[in-house]
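Hey, can you fold this one?
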Amino acid sequence: MITKRIKKELLLAVIFFYILGSISIVYANGSLGVVLVDDISGPYKVEVKSYAQKLPQGPAHFSIYVFDTTKNENLENLNVIYTAISPSGKSLEPFIGYIEDPIPSLVIQEMNISYDSDILLDEVGIWKLKIDIDGPLGKTTVNTQVEIVSMIINWGLIAGILTIILLVLPMSIIWIRSIKKRG
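Sure. Predicted structure:
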C-alpha cells in the first residue's frame, strides 16, 4: 500500500516538474523579436526592436542595437535619446536610452548591447519616434512610426493560467484524498 502511494506521488512529481521544465523563458515586456527598423543611418547600422508591430496602449518597451557599418560590431558608450510624438502632435519629454545588463541564458545566445527605453504611449494611433544617436563615429537620427491600438485581451495568458489551474487542481485533490486516507 505504501509503495503504491509513493509511486503515485512520485509520478505526480515527475509530471509536475516535466511541465514546469517545458515552460519557456518569458520576458516582462514580451519577446523583443519584432524589428521595427533595420536601416543604415550615417555611419551606423541601427535596429529598433519591440515586442509587437502594433503595440497596446500604455507603456511600451523599445531596444536599439547600434552597429559600426564598417566592422559590423555592436557599439557601446553612445548617447541615445528617444523622442516620441503622439498622433495629436504632442511631443513627450526626451527619454535617454539606458543599457540593460545582458543576462546570459540557454535560449538566447545574443549578447549585443542594446539601448532600451520604456515610454508611456497613451494615445491610440500612429506615434512618431525620433531616435538621436551620438557616438564616436558621429551623430545621426533615425525616424520610425509605431501604431498604438486600444488595450486588448491577452487570450494566450488567460489560456496559460487556465491550463495551470486545470493541471494543479486534480493534483491537489489527489494529494488531499491521500492525506485523508492516511489519517
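The chain has two domains: 1-28+154-183, 31-152. Let me know if you want another pass with a different chain boundary.
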